[in-house]
Write a structure and sequence with these properties.
The radius of gyration is 31 Å and the shape is elongated. With 592 residues, the protein is α/β, with parallel strands linked by helices. Strands 1, 2, 3, 4, 5 and 6 form a six-stranded mixed sheet that branches. Strands 7, 8, 9, 10 and 11 form a five-stranded antiparallel sheet that branches. It has a four-stranded parallel sheet with strand order 14-17-16-15, sandwiched between helices.
Length: 592
């Protein structure tokens, strides 16, 4: 199954490679909302909703280029720019320079479209034939916001890659078959990332046309190679035109980058052979590319939510402006913001309850500083599901003697896997809390699956306490079990924990000057398995009776204090993380 990767992911990698802040162009700064408006405005100008389309009005005017430019500018302001500026006046109060640059760019775009129409106008109409009006010709040429999708499979790749994205505009000449991919940019962008992104759209159109030609759906035309136009408004217009031949070397580098990002690029056989011979297993993790999950950029719904933050705070007298880039993680949206005149960080944080109520959020937004910038993290209304298959490739391979100690926790805003390392003191034992139905048992299964993926039965053994009797049914015959599944209504959980504490003591007697169980295993030349005790519904265990609770808490206190070096760890889950449950041994000995 192809690995899916978006053009926005590749652009983000290009942007990072260009050095972030050092990659900015020399254009006037803009905001995410104004950038969205700019593309929507161009879509309105070249739309095909005749006869209301602004370009439709050009057919009824005299052949005067200046008149055509003026007409398009008037339509753009009356029908698009003016109403939005009036509606969002309060939110844009402190973004006057950006708004001015946006309006200048819209005017430059109107002049550009008028010039294109002027070049396509009928020169000498024949009495016997009626040529189409300029606006009809231009509308037929232009396609805006065109979804693109292609499959890439290069020699040496372990799998194919599906590349998806939305091109700003594509121009096609039906008579000659010639076409041009157009990438439109506003303000202070990243030239290297802009060109790379535009080149990707050119690549995707080329692949699609080649597939059609092979499938017989269309015949190859002289213009199949296509061209690429990068048109930026800074706010004045700057155009760069590239032929297919000029894009050849850039295309090869982009395909290599896509292979690395998607995790399908294979290592040379010689390197794999050397690694396998020296370690007896797969190549080291640092030599393997990470897997990448499908990730699209922020949608229009997300940008509207960001603008709602601006408007709501403006109503309370706090002036902010959205900055780029807006980050769309699987569960959260991160909006970088700039403080307006007189606004303070404290003034923003005090209104988080109002933001939740006014924007109908499921939880209050998180407001924090990230690399010196103020950011607002908001739960996505359309949160995504991250599957275990999406992250399993990022787990390290099993180490023959010591196994793996990393427990997958989840993915961050950038969709990178985050793990807790049981070998570290701060992660030696874990407490999982959440209300009924919030996903505790599902997360515990994820943790167990991650540990099994990075170990063998010689390096990992599990102790599973399952009060519900159904959370870990699939592990019933697993060779990873240290002892059979523990059901508290049949076997005392306190007795199981006592056995673990006795095993801890036995291991310490074997240390003979060693600092950890890994050193013991290395000296004896035999694997000494790490033991992880997973317990669901901890609150239910300690609610049985007072004597049982005391016995359980006593063993947790012993294990929590000194079991890490012996390679024994606790992962406890409870649906009632009250002070009564967490106090005492858990509060003192469960660090994470």
């Amino acid at each position: 199954m192809p690995v899916t990767i978006s053009v926005s992911q590749v652009r983000r990698a290009l942007y990072q490679g260009a050095g972030f802040s050092g990659a900015q162009g020399d254009g006037a700064p803009s905001t995410a909302v104004l950038g969205q408006w700019f593309h929507e405005g161009l879509g309105m100008l070249v739309g095909r909703d005749s006869p209301a389309s602004p370009l439709a009005q050009l057919a009824a005017l005299d052949a005067d280029l200046d008149l055509w430019k003026q007409t398009l500018v008037e339509h753009a302001y009356t029908r698009f720019v003016g109403p939005r500026l009036t509606r969002e006046q309060a939110a844009l109060h402190d973004a006057a320079p950006q708004v001015l640059a946006f309006w200048q760019a819209i005017q430059a775009a109107c002049h550009w479209l008028a010039e294109l129409s002027w070049g396509l106008r009928p020169q000498r109409p024949s009495r016997r034939s009626i040529q189409p009006a300029p606006w009809q010709t231009l509308a037929d040429l232009f396609t805006t916001e065109e979804p693109l999708d292609c499959i890439l499979h290069e020699p040496g790749w372990a799998d194919s890659v599906r590349l998806v994205g939305i091109a700003d505009a594509v121009v096609r000449l039906s008579q000659t078959g010639a076409w041009c991919a157009i990438e439109l940019k506003l303000g202070q962008t990243c030239p290297a990332a802009d060109l790379g992104q535009a080149c990707l759209y050119h690549l995707m159109i080329s692949k699609a046309r080649a597939t059609d030609a092979r499938g017989g759906t269309s015949a190859p035309a002289p213009g199949d190679a296509g061209t690429l136009a990068l048109v930026s408004f800074r706010p004045d217009r700057h155009e760069q035109l590239f032929t297919a031949a000029e894009l050849g070397s850039a295309r090869e580098r982009l395909i290599d980058l896509i292979g690395k990002l998607a995790g399908v690029e294979m290592l040379p056989s010689a390197v794999i052979g050397e690694s396998a011979a020296s370690t007896g297993g797969p190549p080291p993790r640092e030599n393997r590319p990470p897997s990448v999950r499908e990730a699209a950029g922020p949608t229009r719904q997300h940008l509207v939510l960001g603008q709602g933050l601006v408007e709501t705070l403006a109503e309370y007298g706090v002036s902010i402006a959205l900055e780029e880039p807006v980050i769309a993680g699987p569960t959260f949206l991160r909006f970088p913001i700039a403080l307006g005149r007189g606004a303070t960080v404290k003034g923003v944080t005090r209104f988080t309850p109002e933001l939740q109520v006014r924007l109908r959020l499921k939880a209050e937004p998180f407001i924090s500083l990230d690399d010196g910038r103020l950011v607002i993290d908001v739960q996505r209304p359309d949160r995504e599901t991250v599957w275990f298959d999406d992250v399993r490739a990022e787990l390290p391979p099993p180490e023959p003697r010591t196994g793996g100690s990393r427990v997958p926790v989840g993915v961050n805003l950038f969709r990178q896997l985050v793990c807790a390392d049981l070998a570290k003191p701060e992660h030696a034992h874990l407490l999982v809390a959440g209300t009924t139905g919030s996903g505790k048992s599902e997360w515990l299964r994820l943790a167990v699956a991650g540990l099994i993926m990075t170990n063998t039965p010689e390096t990992l053994r599990l102790v599973v306490i399952d009060p519900k009797r159904n959370a870990f049914h699939a592990l019933g015959d697993s060779p990873f079990l240290w002892r059979p599944l523990v059901f508290p209504d049949e076997h005392s959980a306190a007795d199981v924990l006592i056995e673990l504490a006795e095993e801890m003591d036995r291991r310490y007697r074997r240390f003979d000057g060693a600092d950890s169980f890994q050193q013991v295993a290395a000296k004896s030349n035999q694997p000494l398995p790490r033991i992880v005790c997973v317990c669901d519904e901890y609150r239910d265990l300690i609610s049985l009776n007072r004597d049982e609770r005391k016995r359980i808490e006593a063993q947790i206190c012993r294990l929590g204090a000194k079991a890490r070096a012996a390679g024994i760890h606790l992962i406890l889950a409870t649906q009632e993380p009250s002070r009564d449950t967490i106090k005492g041994p858990l509060d003192s000995n469960i660090p994470a």
